[in-house]
Amino acid sequence: MGNEVAKGSPAAQIIAEEERLYGQVQARVAFGEDDDGRPQVGAGDLDADLVSLRDQIAEARPEDLPPLVEQMTRLAALRARLGGGKQLPVDITSPYFAHIRLRESGKTKDVLVGKRGFIDRQSNVQIVDWRNAPVSRIYYRYEEGDDYEEEIAGRRVEGVVDVRRNVSIARSNLRRIGAPQGTYLKDARGSWVQAVGQIAPVLHGGMGKAARPAAAAGAKGRLGIHHGTQRADKALPEIAALIDKEQFDLITQPGSGIVVIQGGAGSGKTTVALHRIAYLNFQDGRRFKPSNTLFVVPSQALVRYVSGVLPSLGVTGVPVVTYTGWARTTRMRCLPDSPTKYNAEPPEQVSRVKKHPALLATLERWVARQAEQIGAEIATSPPQAAATPGTAPAAGPAAQTAALDEWNRLAARALAPRLAGFASWVKRAELPPSERLALEGIARRWKKRADDCVLDWAELFTDPVALAEGFSGSDVKKSDIERVVAWLRRQLARPQKAPVDEEGNPVLDSEGQPLGIDEDDPAGKFDDEDDPILLRMVQLKRGGLIPPAGDELSWQHVAIDEAQDRSALEIKVLLEAVHAPDGDPGKRSVTIAGDTAQRLVFDNNFSSWADLLAQTGQPAIVRPLRLSYRSTAEVMVLAREILGPELASDEPLAARPGEPVELHEFGDLGEAIAFLGDALRTLMAREPTASCGAHRAPQRGGDGGGAL
How far apart are CA 701 and CA 84, in angstroms? Predict the structure, then answer.
């Protein structure tokens, strides 16, 4: 069960330092603060005992520390409960997750990094908030033994990082210490052991997968890596303690602008997106309120994961949604009278066309032509006869010119508010009654038509000429357009009713059950791909995602995970739903995370981040995360060989080595299952908490066998 830490060893000294430091924090934090922010001292025998224990811990020998710290934990918890309702300065059960010792000009100081800042130099307790304290940058950017140089509070600070450690404190119990010298765990008996493995375990994010230590030398051909010894990642450190320099720099990008995070599996893309939301919320809580933030993920499993992680970062109430679910509910809010049923499997050609990036310009041209048509009607409204003396002035060209000038003046508005503004002008302007009636008729007639986005969708996708023009020069063929038009006409058809006989009774099947309608009939149903089209049309027509009755649906920050599986149209809808301060789209705050080599959807016409950003018309910063923490170097090399240089052009980087990757070939599937059954039973006995997955690759030239 690991290697017991020997008394007097360097490891024992590290443990003693951390226990002593934690004891000091417990003693100080347990006092709480009065209304003036000063320590509450002299509150009784408990306070006196805490002070006495603090002094004993500061002078105790390493072997005497455990019972003193345990007693301190009990008294601190009791003191917290008797604190008279006062809020403690930090969470006493887990006050910090990292420790650095800095040496500047011959002097040293211990700095603790946690979720909330608290400094009392008289008690030698300095806990800084990882999100905003400048000194926390030293922890994230430098390693133990590094010289550092930072600008803090307007002055240049130089020194050496003497100590850099991460710790796990749970329920007021120091359980784990991670240091370059090793990883130390407290077992169930309260004794400290050093975890096995050449590299300390880390958790750098992705899907919350823990990197695992390398195996000791052993027999090959077996699943697993630890062969029965204690795993070093049983008590994982807080994720914020394990963010590396590149990830930290991405997290702390300015709040305005679009940040695209390109990273391979296990590089921490999701971790960065999550911590960026927490960082922005802390930096500008008024703008980036949780309710003003949206996190979009590809699956319900990730919804549950992200919904659990964000509260642990101090951010609760952020809507976490799948794109499909968000688009459906938003479309129904904006277009409440539209159909609510969906087709399960639309034709592949239809899905590809409805996701094509050329649709972005096609939709814009469609709306622009309607605006041009309205302008033409205004310009050609019938001139009136000359007025007789004593009557209202004649309309004629002057009134037409004034009306057209007003229509053109409102060109910056979306079509629906542009019509509303024009109608208001017609009521106020000095116009002859006949001309006023003519212009009011144009505005009234177009008001309803301009807001009918479902009709726009139906007309556009059943117009082969408009579609051919829109997709001209793209890879969409004439046969694809014909298939889309035919499918749309089936969608627009009246849904069939269940069959009945001549007397109106249900027709029964062979088992005596009434025959139902054909569930595969697309009549009266939308495709999932229709929602982004309709939402984009709503944005172009109404100027945003505006329900018929209610305020615009808008967010201050949107994070999109696994964005490589989203179409340009889907991304555009989300980007336009983000508030643009001062009307400047470049100031929108968006985080996009993904990996061009991990595509699971291949009909969305995604090719590269550069193309996606060009298609959506948004400037952005594309930053790579190259180091993978989830997989070993051997697995990364294999993955690159499978993907090929086109999808994985960079050399793979991994945080740790691992077992060699082995290939097992079998004559048929049954043989493979038998092998896996035996191997997995052995693995479960040896490593009960191991995670595993399997993939069967068919042999070339046949499907009777395979490889694992």
Answer: 77
